[in-house]
Design goal:
The complex is a heterotrimer of chains A (578), B (275) and C (185).
Chain A (H helix, E strand, L loop, with lengths): L5 E10 L7 E8 L4 E5 L6 H8 L2 H4 L3 E9 L4 H9 L3 E4 L3 H4 L5 H11 L4 H14 L15 H13 L5 E5 L7 H18 L2 E5 L3 H4 L6 E6 L2 E6 L1 H6 L2 H4 L6 H8 L19 H13 L11 E10 L8 E9 L3 E5 L6 H9 L6 E6 L2 E2 L5 H5 L2 E4 L12 H12 L3 H14 L15 H13 L5 E5 L7 H18 L2 E5 L3 H7 L2 E6 L2 E6 L1 H4 L3 H6 L6 H8 L5 H26 L1
Parallel strand pairs in A: 3-7, 3-8, 5-6, 6-7, 12-17, 12-18, 15-16, 16-17
Antiparallel strand pairs in A: 1-2, 1-4, 8-9, 10-11, 10-13, 13-14, 18-19
Chain B lengths: L12 H4 L2 H17 L3 H17 L4 H25 L3 H6 L4 E6 L2 E4 H27 L2 H10 L4 H30 L10 H32 L18 H22 L11
Antiparallel strand pairs in B: 1-2
Helix pairs in contact in B: 2-6, 2-7, 2-10, 3-6, 4-6, 7-8, 8-9
Chain C lengths: L6 H16 L17 H13 L1 H20 L4 H16 L1 H4 L9 H31 L3 H36 L8
Helix pairs in contact in C: 1-2, 1-3, 2-3, 2-4, 2-7, 3-4, 4-6, 6-7
Classes of the chains: A alpha/beta (578), B mainly alpha (275), C mainly alpha (185).
C-alpha cells in the first residue's frame, strides 16, 4: 500500500478571533501524484485547509489546532513556513501580490535568491524553468507589461524552481478571463503529468477546473468534508447544488431535461461524455420548452459614435467604436484584459477624452460636461468596493455624494433612506461598514451611486472573485434595482455565466474594436468571436450538437429562459415565506 | 506624471558599470559636494559632471521637463537669499565691494554675487549626478547594490518593493480619484482649507486601506517563498565588478579625499578670491 | 517573540514608500504663495509610523523623500530629507500609545497624544534640524532658513493634524471591529 503524502487525522482548527472552529474533524488522505480539487462556498474552510498545508497556519495565523496533520512525513506546524516552502509550492490567487520582483527573471529567481544560491546557478535554473513555461522571451519584462495569463505562468515558475513535491493553487482562476483560465488548467495538467507532482487546487469554478482530469474532488461545507469522490460520481450526485456550488452548465441542463446521469457515462468532460442514454430526454425537453418574448424599449438613451482613443498616439486602445444603448437595457461589455473595455467606460465617464467621435446622452453631446457633471447622470461603480468606501458608517458613505453637493441635511437623510430601502440595507443603516461582508459592501457602493439618481449605471466586474451563492445574490440585487428604478445598466465582465443568464445583450471587444453586438447566446456559440474575445464557448453548445440539435444558439437561449423562470419561481417562493 | 525620470537601457560605458559602483560614486559625490564650498572644486565637479552626462548618452528630452522646474526653484531660491540677507557674502568673505545700489538697504556687492554663484554651482554639481544615476542604473540592481554597501538585505529589499509597486499605486490612485470625482468629490482648489483636506482624505483613505491589504498579501507571498530564511541572500541582477568598476571606485575615493584636502587646506571651506 | 524588522515591516516600508512617492505630486494649496503647498504624503507617513512603529516611519520618510524628489524634481535636498525621517521616527516611537490597531485611536486621549507628538516632532525637524543642515551644507542665511523652516513646520502640523488624524482614526475604527477576521473572505 502506498503511503499518503498528505494525511489529516481528526484535524480541527479554530481561528484565535472566532468562537466556532473553522475546520471540524477533518480526515483526509492524499497520495503522491494525485490531483485533488478542494471545492466549496466562500467561508467553507477550503482556504483554511490549504493554509494548514503550507504552514501559514499556525506560522502566521494564530489559532487552536487539534488532531494530526502529516505532509511528506512532517508536521507543518513544527517545520514552519520556511521549512514547508521547500515541500509545498503555493500559487496565490492574487498574481499581482505574488509577483514581488521588478522583472520576470528576478521573480523566478526569488526563492532561490533567498537560499543564497550562487548567481551562475540562478541563471541556469531560471533559464530552465522559463523554457518549460514558455516565457523565455519575457525574462526582462516588468509585471505591468504582462497579461494575466503570463503573470500566472511566472507565479507558477516562481514556485517550481524549488523542486517542490506538492503544488497548491489558491483560486487560480479568480482573476482570469475564460480562455486564459482554460489554458492555465491545461498548463497545470501538462506540467504535473510529466513531473509526477501532487497537485491541490482550491477553486469554486468547478466546470473550468474539470476541463482536464482531476482524480478526486473534496467538497467542504461549514468546515466539514461532505464529499470525497471522483468527479464522475460527484457530478451524478446532488452534492454540489445542495451546498451552493455551481454545477457545470451541461450537467444542469441534463438534469433539467430529466436525465438521470450515471458515472459510467463519464460526465466529467462534455467532450468525452457518453451522451446517448440522455439524448431522448434532451431533445424532448428542447421541443417542449418555449422561449419567452423579451420586451424591448425603442428609446435610445446613450449613443456612441465612431469613438477613437489612444494613450500614446500610436496604438488605438479604442478604435472606431459605435453602438446605441436603449433605455432600461442591461448589457455586458466583454473581451480579454486590455481589449479596451475599461478605456471605453472611462471615455463615457469622462475620465479620458476621446481623440475623435462623439458620445450622446439622450441625444445631446456630452463632450463639454465635466467628470462631476457626467457622474450625476452616469454612475460608475469600481470592481473592488474597498477602493470606493471612505467613510466608516453606512448612511454616511451613501450620503457622501449628496453631502459634497451641498444638498440640505433633511433631504440627504430622506434620499439616503429611500435608497437604502431599495437596496435592502435599511436595517443596517447605522452599522459600521467594517461589519459588512464583501457582497454587502458592494451593495453599499452601488447604493452610494444610486442615491445620485443616475440614468445609467456602469458596473466594473460586479461579481469578480465571488462564489456562486454570493454572485447570484449580487446579480439578483442588480436585477431588482433595475426593475425598481428602470435604470440602464452596463457591466464590464468576463464572466460568461453572468452575461448568459442576466444580460439582454452582449458587446464583445478585441484590440479596441467592437467585434460583435448580439444576444449573449449568439456570442457564446460563435467560435470565431469567442476566440478573439478570449471567451469560451459554452458547454451547452457542445451538448446540443452531441444530442443532434443543430441550432445550439436556440438551445442555449431556451435553457437560459427556463433557468430564469425557475430561479424567479424560487425567488418568489422565498419572498412568500418571508 | 509623464515628467518622471526613468531608467533607459543603452550601451554606454556608464551603463556597463555595476550599480554598486554607481551608488558609491553617487553617494561620495553628494557628500563631497555637500561639504565643500571651494569654488575650484565645484567648478571641476561641474565640468566632470557635464562630461559624464555626455558619455552617459542621456537625452535632453529625458530630463528637460524636470530641469525647467529645478531652474524655476533655483531662481526663486537665489532671489530669496538676496532678499533675506543681501550681505551674506560680505559676512563670509570678510569684505564689501559695492556694485549697484538698488533701494533701501539693498545693494548688490561682488561678494554677494560670488557667494550666490557658489550656491548655484553647488546645486549644479548634484543635479546632473541624480539625472545620470537614475537614467543609467537598472532599478533591479539597486537593492543588490544597497546590500553590497552594507545595508541589511531585508531593508534593501524594501526599495525593490517600492520600485515594483510605485506604478501600481499610482494607477490605483488615479482610478480611485476618478471614481470619487464622478461622485462629486474633487481635489480642486475651491472651497475652504478644511473642506479640501477632507476631500483629500476621502480619496486617500481607500488607497491606504487597500495598501494595507496589499502588505498582507505580499508579506505572505514572500514568506511562502522563503524570504528572510538565511543570513545572506544572493541577487539575480547583481553585476560582477570589472576592472572598469575598480578603476572608477579608486578614482572617486581619491577625488573625494583630494577635494576635501584642497578645500580645507587654508582652514576654511570657502575659497576666497577677495583677499 | 516577533522580530523587530520582520517581513511585514520590510513590505510595509516598501509599500509605504511607494505610496509616499506616488503622492509626491499631490498637493493641497494652502495660500497663494508658491512652495507652501500642504503635502498629503506626510499624513501617509504618519499613518504608517503609528501602525508600524519608528523604524518603518523613519525609513519611509528618508527613502520616500529622497526618491520622490529625485524622480519628480530631479534633485535631492538632503537637508530636507533627514528631517522627514526624524518626523516619521518620532511619531513612530509612541506607536503603542495610540493603539491604532486595537481601535484606541477613536479616543480623545490618543488623538491628543498623537498631535502633541507630531507637533513636537515637526518642531524638532523643521525649526531645529532642517535650518541647521541648510546652514551647515549650503551656508544659507540664518533668517531665510528659519523662515522656510517655520513654513514647513506650519504646513506639516496642519496636514498631519487634520488629514493624518482623519485617516488614522478611520482606520482605527475599522481595525477594531474586523480584528484578524479577514482571511476567509
Amino acid at each position: 500500500m502506498r503511503e499518503p503524502i498528505i494525511e489529516f487525522k481528526d484535524f480541527s482548527f479554530k481561528y484565535k478571533s472566532q468562537k466556532e472552529p473553522t475546520l471540524k474533524n477533518i480526515n483526509l488522505k492524499i497520495y503522491p501524484g494525485e490531483k485533488i480539487l478542494f471545492a466549496g462556498r466562500s467561508g467553507c474552510g477550503k482556504s483554511t485547509l490549504a493554509h494548514c498545508l503550507n504552514a501559514l497556519i499556525p506560522g502566521s495565523i494564530q489559532g487552536d489546532i487539534s488532531g494530526n496533520l502529516r505532509v511528506c512525513g512532517n508536521d507543518p506546524g513544527k517545520l514552519g513556513v520556511f521549512g514547508m516552502s521547500k515541500i509545498v509550492g503555493t500559487v496565490l490567487q492574487d498574481t499581482d501580490g505574488q509577483f514581488i520582483a521588478l522583472t520576470v527573471a528576478e521573480d523566478l529567481a526569488f526563492a532561490l535568491e533567498n537560499e543564497n544560491t550562487p548567481q551562475d546557478e540562478l541563471f541556469e535554473k531560471v533559464g530552465d524553468v522559463a523554457k518549460k513555461l514558455d516565457i523565455s522571451d519575457l525574462l526582462e519584462c516588468a509585471p505591468g507589461e504582462l497579461s494575466g495569463g503570463q503573470k500566472q505562468r511566472v507565479s507558477l515558475g516562481g514556485v517550481m524552481v524549488c523542486d517542490v513535491k506538492i503544488l497548491l493553487f489558491d483560486e487560480p482562476l479568480a482573476n482570469l478571463d475564460p480562455a486564459t483560465g482554460k489554458r492555465t488548467i491545461e498548463l497545470m495538467d501538462d506540467l504535473c503529468k510529466n513531473d509526477d507532482m501532487t497537485v491541490v487546487i482550491v477553486e469554486h469554478r468547478i466546470e473550468d477546473v474539470l476541463h482536464r482530469d482531476i482524480d478526486r474532488v473534496v467538497v467542504l461545507s461549514e468546515g466539514e468534508i461532505v464529499a470525497d469522490m471522483t468527479p464522475d460520481e460527484l457530478l451524478c450526485s446532488d452534492v454540489l447544488s445542495t451546498h451552493g456550488i455551481r454545477e457545470p452548465l451541461y450537467i444542469t441542463a441534463l438534469k433539467a431535461a430529466g436525465a438521470d446521469i450515471t458515472p459510467d457515462t463519464h460526465p466529467q468532460h462534455i467532450e468525452s461524455m457518453l451522451i446517448d442514454p440522455y439524448k431522448e430526454n434532451v431533445i424532448q425537453w428542447f421541443h417542449k420548452t418555449e422561449r419567452q418574448k423579451s420586451e424591448t424599449c425603442d428609446d435610445t438613451i446613450l449613443e456612441i459614435e465612431n469613438l477613437c482613443f489612444s494613450y500614446d498616439g500610436i496604438n488605438k486602445t479604442v478604435d472606431n467604436a459605435s453602438f446605441k444603448v436603449k433605455r432600461g437595457e442591461l448589457f455586458a461589455l466583454v473581451g480579454k484584459n486590455g481589449a479596451g473595455k475599461s478605456t471605453l467606460s472611462s471615455l463615457i465617464c469622462g475620465f479620458n477624452k476621446p481623440n475623435t467621435g462623439r458620445i450622446l446622452l439622450e441625444g445631446a453631446d456630452i463632450a463639454e460636461l465635466s467628470i462631476k457633471e457626467r457622474g450625476e447622470r452616469i454612475g460608475y461603480v469600481m470592481q473592488n468596493p474597498n477602493q470606493m468606501i471612505s467613510k466608516t458608517m453606512i448612511s454616511e458613505e451613501v450620503g457622501l455624494g449628496l453631502f459634497v453637493k451641498g444638498v440640505p441635511q433633511d433631504e440627504i437623510t430622506r434620499r439616503v433612506n429611500e435608497t437604502l430601502k431599495i437596496c435592502g440595507l435599511y436595517p443596517y443603516r447605522n452599522w459600521p461598514i467594517s461589519a459588512l461582508s464583501f457582497g454587502q459592501k458592494k451593495r453599499v457602493t452601488i447604493a452610494s451611486i444610486l442615491v445620485m439618481k443616475p440614468e445609467i449605471l456602469i458596473l466594473d466586474e460586479p461579481t469578480a472573485g465571488q462564489d456562486y451563492a454570493h454572485y447570484t445574490d449580487i446579480m439578483e440585487f442588480i436585477l431588482k434595482i433595475k426593475k425598481a428604478l428602470g435604470i440602464t445598466i452596463m457591466m464590464i465582465t468576463h464572466d460568461m455565466h453572468l452575461m448568459l443568464e442576466y444580460t439582454d445583450r452582449c458587446i464583445a471587444m478585441a484590440d479596441g474594436q467592437l467585434i460583435m453586438d448580439a444576444k449573449p447566446f449568439d456570442v457564446l456559440t460563435d467560435e470565431a468571436i469567442c476566440d478573439r474575445a478570449y471567451l469560451k464557448k459554452t458547454s451547452l453548445y457542445e451538448l446540443s450538437l452531441k444530442c443532434g440539435i443543430d441550432d445550439p444558439s436556440e438551445f442555449t437561449a431556451r435553457f437560459i429562459d427556463d433557468e430564469r423562470r425557475r430561479r424567479k419561481e424560487a425567488c418568489d417562493e422565498q419572498n412568500d415565506i418571508l | 506624471m509623464n515628467r518622471m525620470i526613468s531608467y533607459e537601457n543603452k550601451d554606454t560605458p556608464i551603463h556597463k558599470l555595476s550599480g554598486f559602483t554607481k551608488l558609491v560614486f553617487f553617494l561620495l559625490w553628494c557628500i563631497t559636494s555637500a561639504i565643500t564650498f571651494d569654488t575650484r572644486v565645484l567648478v571641476v565637479m561641474i565640468i566632470m559632471g557635464a562630461m559624464i552626462y555626455i558619455i552617459s548618452g542621456t537625452k535632453w528630452e529625458q530630463v528637460s521637463g524636470v530641469f525647467a522646474i529645478i531652474m524655476f526653484f533655483m531662481v526663486l531660491n537665489i532671489l530669496g537669499i538676496f532678499f533675506f540677507s543681501p550681505y551674506e557674502g560680505c559676512k563670509i568673505y570678510g569684505s564689501r565691494t559695492d556694485l549697484l545700489h538698488l533701494f533701501g538697504n539693498y545693494t548688490i556687492t561682488s561678494e554677494q554675487l560670488f557667494y550666490e554663484f557658489n550656491v548655484l554651482i553647488k546645486y549644479f554639481t548634484v543635479i546632473p549626478s541624480i539625472f545620470i544615476f537614475l537614467t543609467t542604473t537598472d532599478p533591479s540592481e539597486l537593492a543588490a547594490s544597497l546590500n553590497r554597501i552594507g545595508i541589511p538585505y531585508t531593508a534593501a529589499y524594501s526599495l525593490e518593493i517600492t520600485l515594483r509597486y510605485i506604478p501600481d499605486v499610482q494607477d490605483e490612485f488615479r482610478r480611485i480619484k476618478n471614481a470619487q470625482e464622478a461622485r462629486g468629490i474633487e481635489m480642486s482648489s475651491k472651497g475652504s482649507l478644511l473642506y479640501r483636506i477632507k476631500n483629500t482624505a476621502v480619496i486617500i483613505f481607500p488607497l491606504l486601506f487597500s495598501s494595507m491589504d496589499r502588505i498582507e498579501v505580499v508579506s505572505n507571498a514572500m514568506e511562502l517563498r522563503g524570504f528572510g530564511k538565511k543570513k545572506k541572500r544572493s541577487w539575480y541582477s547583481q553585476k560582477k565588478l570589472t576592472a572598469m568598476d575598480f578603476a572608477t571606485l579608486a578614482f572617486i575615493i581619491l577625488f573625494s579625499i583630494g577635494s576635501l584636502v584642497l578645500t580645507f587646506a587654508d582652514g576654511s571651506r570657502f575659497y576666497n578670491p577677495f583677499i | 517573540m516577533k522580530k523587530k524588522f520582520g517581513i511585514r515591516e520590510v513590505v510595509a516600508v516598501g509599500i509605504g514608500t511607494a505610496l509616499f512617492v506616488a503622492l509626491t505630486s499631490v498637493q493641497v494649496p494652502l495660500v497663494v504663495i508658491p512652495n507652501t503647498d500642504l503635502q498629503p504624503r506626510m499624513a501617509v507617513m504618519a499613518f504608517f509610523a503609528t501602525v508600524f512603529g519608528p523604524i518603518v516611519g523613519g525609513i519611509i520618510g528618508l527613502l520616500g523623500h529622497a526618491l520622490g524628489d529625485a524622480i519628480f524634481w530631479g534633485s535631492v535636498w538632503w537637508s530636507w530629507v533627514i528631517p522627514d525621517g526624524i518626523v516619521g521616527a518620532i511619531i513612530g516611537i509612541f506607536a503603542k500609545q495610540y493603539a491604532v490597531k486595537d481601535g484606541g485611536f477613536t479616543k480623545k486621549s490618543s488623538i491628543s497624544i498623537f498631535n502633541g507628538v507630531q507637533i513636537a516632532a515637526n518642531a524638532i525637524a523643521w525649526i531645529a534640524v532642517a535650518p541647521a543642515l541648510d546652514i551647515l551644507i549650503y551656508a544659507e542665511p540664518v533668517n531665510k532658513v528659519f523662515t522656510q523652516g517655520a513654513f514647513a513646520f506650519l504646513g506639516n502640523i496642519i496636514i498631519i493634524g487634520i488629514l493624518g488624524t482623519l485617516i488614522i482614526a478611520g482606520y482605527s475604527k475599522i481595525a477594531e471591529k474586523s480584528n484578524n477576521l479577514s482571511l476567509e473572505e
